[in-house]
Amino acid sequence: MSWGEAISGNTEIRDWLMKNGYPELGLFCFALFFDKAASSWLIKNAPHLLALIKGVEGKKDALTWLQKGYPLLHKVAKAADADEESMRWLVLNDRVMAVIAQKIKFVKDEIEETNNDVHRWGFE
Q: What angle do CA 58, 62, 68 make, to 5 degrees?
């Protein structure tokens, strides 16, 4: 649940995760916001978490890779990308990961809305 709070923007928990043996979970939060250094670290040390982010963004190769080796993360990626069947499965089988998927979806939706506003108002 701490990871979910970090995804939601709790920087204290994110920093705690990074300093207490879970750097991949903290860096995941940075990579969600397109931080290149965090993404580079994840690809070397926790590629499944970077694939999760890419899967949420609809990258087919990431989803295929997750499905073969990390089926639970595949469900999380699909659920966070608004796949209702995957979310139902998570709710029934792994509620913690269902919450994680919801939090990732919320963050990604906020990022997309902000980007749409920037383009809509011509602030590129």
A: 125
User: Which helix (H) or strand (E) covers residue 12, if one does?
Assistant: helix 11-19
Cα–Cα–Cα angle for 55, 60, 66, nearest 5°? Answer: 55
The reported pTM is 0.89
- Rounded Cα distance between 76 and 97, Å, is 7
d(CA 12, CA 31): 17
**Angle formed at CA 73 by CA 33 and CA 104, multiple of 5 degrees:** 35
| Run of H or E including 97 | helix 95-121
pLDDT, tens digit, 9 for 90 and up, residues 43-86: 999 999 999 999 999 999 999 999 999 999 999 999 999 999 99
